Amino acid sequence: MRVVIADDNAFIREGLALMLSTFGHEVCAVLERGPDVLPALLKHRPDVAVLDVRLPPGFTDEGLRAAAAAREEIPGLPVLMLSQYVETAYAAELLANGASGVGYLLKDRVGRIEEFREAMDRVAAGGTAMDPEVVSQLMARRRAANVLDALSAREREVLALMAEGHGNGAIAGKLFIAETSVNKHVGNIFARLGLPAGTGDHRRVRAVLAYLSA
């Protein structure tokens, strides 16, 4: 897998580069500054970009802006954003800017190597990988707006785990219920969100995005 990395923290960006190289990935570019990100993404067209939300010189949303601009030029470019803190506005904006291949993790998750690798693989494959804390805060915001009223408590639990990127089998294990029950809940969620069976292969991703970015 070909990867572009951008982070203002030298320890994180060099550590990521070393880790990913060790696992057999090709690190195309390791960047520190926001203005360098878009040209590198357009040049290398990686399988996935791992970008800090806040980059020099402004430390605001340079990484996010570069990701959005790159996805305009390269539709579907998989992007995994990293952030030091939960920034729900940025997470919601990322979700709103694309229907697949997006992720948003707190930097603490990088140290959990297997979790990070799984998240990156899901994003590269066109799925989603949202940090559990980000999902929790996004869902709390939606709950305040009564968006969740149509879903049962169990369906909200299932959708939260879907948003993190887990498959039905993994969700069943985490909730200690049968996978057939998860399948039923997922079907109900699709129905409530108006996503019938004929809406394509990415219906699961569309359900998560439609819900979290509503």
From TrEMBL:
Gene3D superfamilies: 3.40.50.2300. Keywords: DNA-binding, Phosphoprotein, Transcription, Transcription regulation. The keyword DNA-binding applies. The modification 4-aspartylphosphate is found at D52. CDD domains: LuxR_C_like, REC_NarL-like. PROSITE patterns: HTH_LUXR_1, HTH_LUXR_2, RESPONSE_REGULATORY. Signal peptide: none annotated. The keyword Transcription regulation applies. PANTHER family: TRANSCRIPTIONAL REGULATORY PROTEIN NARL-RELATED, TWO-COMPONENT RESPONSE REGULATOR. Residues 144-214 form the HTH luxR-type domain. SMART domains: HTH_LUXR, REC. It comes from Amycolatopsis silviterrae. InterPro entries: CheY-like_superfamily, NreC/VraR/RcsB-like_REC, Sig_transdc_resp-reg_receiver, Tscrpt_reg_LuxR_C, WalR-like. Residues 2-122 form the Response regulatory domain. This is Response regulator transcription factor.
